[in-house]
């Protein structure tokens, strides 16, 4: 039986597009705000990325499964990549919520493995889909913390204060070589292709899934999930700067627009989730949350079992005393069965349920990269330069929109910089970027073939 399609999953339009969004969503619920955009980019005819957002609307669902976010970047000829990523985005939330018999971390791993099996089976059964695959980055926000499950080179980041941390490891040739040589990926020879991944869902029947976390949740934490269509054109420092300075809606759109203005060579998918109040999520700020479940021999766990044994003992001892001597043997046997059955039923009803509050000891080695993203004169320079180059383009072709709004935003940014309000400058520059890219979308619905608009930005 196939997995049902989530209404918040991305859908893929056919035909060439210039930065046309396949999906755009925004949601706020109980201490959480999130936004997501999936965009075809500037040079691709189809969007092979998919995403899923499964928000816990009820307190009981939050306690047991929390909020779930998924980004998948498909690969394969023709429509194979689209199908692979869509299977992952549809099946992972479905299986994760279905496996209530498992703890959240185990259910998340089971969901990813199930998606891998489905993609692999589909590829094995069809020549057109043979060898198809997809990356997969999942983030579950739970009462006990944030947990990531990951395969491939899509990424999950966390922004806390001005520290922007990558909490997933890129399963790419560049990263694997860097680790083997105990060096940074920048030190890997340039001839090593950056787009070769070493692990993905689908090509093989069995896949190793990384599990990272749990990471304690604090008010103000922001999480970013993205495909490499974002991290290819943009540096992690610039991404973190935008995520920290803008509301979630504006941050997702600005990041996609910046990637497109810098060439948009690939599909771009971005999810930003902000924890704006942990008290509404069901937990208070804590630097060291209690993530481990209580010991198996704790008094809380022993109480239901002792109750069960007590009921059984009452049945064994009490019932024969009430009957005549000739019935004591038969009654005793019946009492044993009845008493133990009642006791086991009581134990089952009182057995602690599997919730998101009790998570395993920390898994993985995250964070793998850490970037300081405090707004300042140096950190905003890349954004300043991008907007400057955009304005230089004004006289180079016949644009079908008014540049006055962009000029006004740049002037607002300059005034903010003069007042050392660097966050305000980021807001103004980002607004200029969004205005320009929206004008590009409106004026150029369908470019020829696989080309992109030449915006003159390398």
From TrEMBL:
Q: Which InterPro entries match?
A: PP2C, PPM-type-like_dom_sf, PPM-type_phosphatase-like_dom
The organism encoding this protein is Adhaeretor mobilis
Ranges for region Disordered: 1-22
Highest taxon listed in the record's lineage: Bacteria
* Keywords noted in UniProt: Hydrolase
Q: Which PROSITE patterns match?
A: PPM_2 (PS51746)
* GO molecular function terms listed in the Swiss-Prot or TrEMBL record: protein serine/threonine phosphatase activity
Q: What is the protein named? A: PPM-type phosphatase domain-containing protein
Pfam family membership, one: PP2C_2
